[in-house]
C-alpha cells in the first residue's frame, strides 16, 4: 500500500513539506519530553526517599531454613544496619552470639552507592530540563542515554552480585603479601560481578560485640532487592591438617563441607585463608527495597521508551541514539 499527494506537487515542494512536517513533529516531541522529564524527576525523588534514614526502619529476620545454623534479626535504617543480633551454631566453629554495637552501625556500601546513583540521575534530569538546549535533539538524546545508563547501573546494584564462583587468588607472578601469589581476574556477567567485598573490605571486627574472630567472616549484600547474609568460617592456608584428619579424609570417615568456594584461596585481613564452611541466608522481605526495585524498573522502561521515540522521529528507525543528527 502506498500514499500519494493529490493534486500532485513538484518533488522539491514535496520535500519541503515533508521537512516542515518532520520539524513540527520533532518540536512537539521535544516539548512533550519536558513533561516526561518532570515525571521522571518525581519518580526518582520517591526512590531516593525510600533510602532515607527514617526511623524505625525495616526489621528483617535472618534465619537459616530447616536448621539452627543462623537465627537472628537485623534492623536497616537508610543505608545502615543500626541493630542486629545473631545466634550462630556452625559445624566448624564454636557457637557464638554476636550483636551489633550501638555505637558503630554497619554501613552497606551497595545502598550508599545506590543513593549516589539516584543523586546523579536527579542531577541529570535537572541539567536536561534547565541547563541545556531543550530544543536540541542530539542534546536531549545524549542526556536520556546518560540517564538510562545510570538507572541500569542502579538496577544492577539492586540485583546484587553474580553467584558465579570467583577465582580470587591463584599461584602466579604478581606481588602479594606472600611472594608468588596474586589475585586473578574474576569472571563477570554483563550486569553484575561476583561479590568480592567480603574479603576486600570486610567490616571492622569492633562493629560486633563480641568482636568477630579472624576465623569468622560476616557479609551483608543485596540480591534481587533483598538483603542476604553470608557467614564463612575461615582457616589459614598455613595451617596443615593433622595426621588424624588426613586419615579420616582418606578413608571417607570425614568429609569436607562442600560449597562453591571450598577450593579457593582468599586474602582476608592480610592473611591467605580458605573457606571451611559457607552459609547464605536471605532475609525476610524488605518493603522499601521491593518498592524501590519496582519503581526503578518502571522508570527505566519510561526512559527507554522516550529514547526509542526520539530515535524514530529524527530518522534512526527504532534506534535510540540521536547524537550527531540534525534538528
UniProtKB/TrEMBL annotation:
GO terms for cellular component: RAVE complex
Pfam families: Rogdi_lz
Organism: Hyphodiscus hymeniophilus
Extent of Polar residues compositional bias: 185-199
Taxonomic lineage of the native organism: Eukaryota, Fungi, Dikarya, Ascomycota, Pezizomycotina
Top-level taxon of origin: Eukaryota
Region (Disordered): 169-204
Protein name: RAVE subunit 2/Rogdi
PANTHER family (UniProt xref): LEUCINE ZIPPER CONTAINING TRANSCRIPTION FACTOR LZF1, PROTEIN ROGDI HOMOLOG
